[in-house]
Amino acid sequence: MVLPIACALDNVAEMNYGKRFLTSEAERLLDFAKLSFLPQGGFGYLNNLGEIDTTKPREVYIQCRMIQTLGLGHLLGLTSALDHINHGVDALLDLFYDKKNDGFYSAIDLSNQPTTLNKMAYDHMFVMLAACTAKVAGCPRADELFSIIDSVIDRYFWDKDFKMMNNSWDLEFKVLDNYRGINANMHAVEAMAAAFDLTGDQKYLDRSYAICHRSIDGFAKENDWILPEHFNEKWQVIRDFNIENPSDPFRPFGVTIGHLFEWSRLIIQLEIQLKDSQLDRSWILPSAVGLYECATQSGWSADGSDGFVYTVDWQSKPVVRSRMFWVVAEAVMTAYTLWVITDDAGYLKDYSNWWAYIDAHMIDRENGSWFHELDPNGGVVSHTWSGKPDTYHAFNACVLPLYPLGSSFIGTVLSLQKKSSDSLP
Which residues belong to the active site? Predict the structure, then answer.
């Protein structure tokens, strides 16, 4: 079933980045993502030319993002990818799942041996997201995957006392690391939103709300929207974490501009999900606006050149000046989301300006996908990321504006499927 596009931008005069552009770019990104298919199982790490880099391990979060991206593309009728979805789920269950100790390996080599020594919440949240998408796509083993990951999160990652996710265990789930992180919890919100939309189980909504309330109405608001990322086991801020390794791809020092945008969008989508709930929603829109304004003011052209810097310090001064593709992708999604919610034309202007930056600098029209990292002058670099392993953020930025805004991508698909079914004679 091809689900109908209902792009709100169609009614905006002189819109360069509307339905035609977004659809074409989404389809181009899906074609690139399919190049990651590995006959021996799962998806490989793509280099700048769209070739699999066999020196890199297969990482579980990339498997899940490919399932998510290709799954959404398939469900929306933008591509045919059921074989890819099934292939990815088989890899998660047969290669990445630790049948002895439970949970999923972060990465495996080409001989299917784990290459890391811990089990990460970040990875497991993406397994949940992939399982939800695979279930809706009709993957035969998706129920099995969903049941396993739901149990693992319940047993090892959800902290009932702090109502946040733990971050990392050893391979045998015997030793819990003292570090706690906002990044994994942000993606937990994304995964729980999809799980609630799919199942209706209140557990997922309650967890998502608790994480958002503590992280945003608590940590972010208390720090003037400069959201801390790194904490100890008692959820006390560690302000100098990774100060010696500031460009870490997952746990960089300081404040991550892209996460401020991502949180802003996610809590607005949470509010959509809370429409029938008695939980307090009054803090959500002001928080979303605060995060957005902080990210824009601190991140865009912070060093005098166009583009968003990767990170800033506690005084909002740039630390890592690389322009990451995923940061501007999250920025355009959040600008669009706030425009839909508030009808404020300023957000639509930001949306257009930032897409123009992507169009001019990030999109690789010769070799496919988007350049993952640029220096402040627009040169392609690989200080933090090498190659092009990830189409997830870019694809999401293309499809979000094409359909009615929902509480999750899967929630939007389910809503469109119901509407199409109800309209049949």
Answer: 259, 393
